Amino acid sequence: MNNISNNSQLLANKMPEFDLLWSVLIKVDIGFRCWGVSSHLIFLLVLIGSRSLQKRTFLFANHATLVNTFYVLNMFSYIWNDHPSFDDANLNNVLCSMSEISWIFSSYIRSYSLLLLAVYRYLATFKLATFKRLNKSKLNLTALICLCWLLAFGFPLIAKYSLGTTNSYTFCLDGYSPDAHKTIIYYVYVYTTVILVPVPFVIAIYFKINRKLNSLAVGTRQQQQVVAEANKKKTSRRSLESQQLDDFELDENDLNMSWRSETSHENMISRVKLNKKIDKQRTFSMQFIFMCISLVSSSFVLTIFQLRSVIPNFFSIFYYWRPVLRCYMNVALSIVPWTSIYFHPKRSEFIQKLKNKIFTK
Question: How far apart are CA 121 and CA 101, in angstroms?
């Protein structure tokens, strides 16, 4: 891990600023790359050991979490070198081309997986009959994931072969072209199809779901207040009846309140179930928000790296900033698996079960 990439060595010979700071930044960068991979591996282990996370209703959320692994593994693979450095040049070219596709594919699959999850949660909130039909078969859910993968492969290939872009030497990143105009067109195309199109839909769907949940929560609270007032009024009426039965009369509103009071036990179960559903949907919404934050925040770094060939003196300007930006990228990507673990449907039970296994051993 003490080895430094080829480009960095070249810059070191030219720049006197290559000093202790650079060595520290490189080591911190490596640490954050390991952190990114470890975070996703921990989530994978939690997923394997938790049946509650393996339910069909969590399939899209788990998929949106796991697809982040492509990006962190790609970053991790370039710890020692900026480019494949085997003796066979053809092998290096093949590996670099695979890495090029992997970089852009990981961006698309993250974005469209989040969009798929948003549509899925929308159906769960507004179109319950469609949601139930969709969950009757794993084939239905798998078909949607396959469609997501098809789009994630198709869009970047269209851009690559229509504009004639290739990979850069550093990290085999996608979108490189000697013609700066093609690079800019490629960037605009990718940024539009990865961020500008799906993310507003995701945000709009979230706000609509959240507004629905808020209205349900307000309605439930109002119903609880009505029942509480009816019970209180019924108690006071009974006390009054025992003292002045002849002078007491119930009006129509009082009868309605009394009827609601008598049926409060029957409604209690339905209210509890409704509250649980609201809480569950709120949990999904919060997880949803953090995933969207991860996607948007990581796209900031992708923008800088995708425009590296049109930014004059990119490697000199961002000499110290490149490791910092990669650290930021790994933190943004790690939000997703840790958020999924935090919003585990049975987090307390799972932690207690894990503690019991550790201490019994």
Answer: 30
Q: What angle do CA 192, 197, 199 make, to 5 degrees?
A: 110
Q: What is the dihedral of CA 33, 171, 18, 330, to 10 degrees?
A: -20
Burial code (b: 16+ CB inside 10 Å, e: under 16) for 15-25 equals eeebeeebeeb
The tokens describing 50, both together, are 């938790």
Q: What is the pLDDT along the chain (361 residues), one digit of tens a residue?
A: 333 344 444 444 444 445 788 888 889 999 999 999 999 999 999 999 888 888 888 899 899 999 988 889 988 988 888 888 888 889 988 999 888 888 889 989 999 999 999 999 889 888 889 988 998 888 999 999 999 999 999 999 999 999 999 888 778 888 888 888 888 899 889 888 988 888 888 888 888 888 887 777 655 554 555 555 555 555 555 454 444 434 333 344 443 444 444 455 555 555 556 566 666 667 777 777 888 888 888 877 777 777 777 777 777 777 788 888 889 989 999 999 998 888 877 777 777 777 676 666 5
On whether the pTM is more than 0.85, the answer is no
| Under 8 Å between Cβ of 175 and 190 | yes
**Torsion angles phi and psi, residue 126, rounded to 5:** -110, -25
